[in-house]
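Contributing new records

If you add data, match the layout below exactly. Sequence lines come first and carry their own label; structure lines follow with theirs. Keep one chain per record. Anything else will be rejected by the validation script.
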Amino acid sequence: MGPGEVFSLLIVVLIPTALIAYAFKRFFAFREKQLDVDARLAAEKAAQYAASNAELEQRVRVLEQIVTDSGAQTAAQIEALRASPPLNVARQKHTSQTE
């Protein structure tokens, strides 16, 4: 094997190997950026869920307070609402009587 053949063999082997290594390097850099973006989106969604969860917890606390603090008063208000006719029914009766 002469020096020309060795040189040709090195070129045939080294150039594709270098191109493949470069392609892998670029692919992994792209994949790393993609994972970073996905992680940021997941963190943003988690923050939104946490805010929503905190809001729901606050609403449940208010409901618990209403139920425990003024249970009898709330029951009386509900019964008063049941006893009074709804506004739209009262309006319909009023308009049908005036006609």
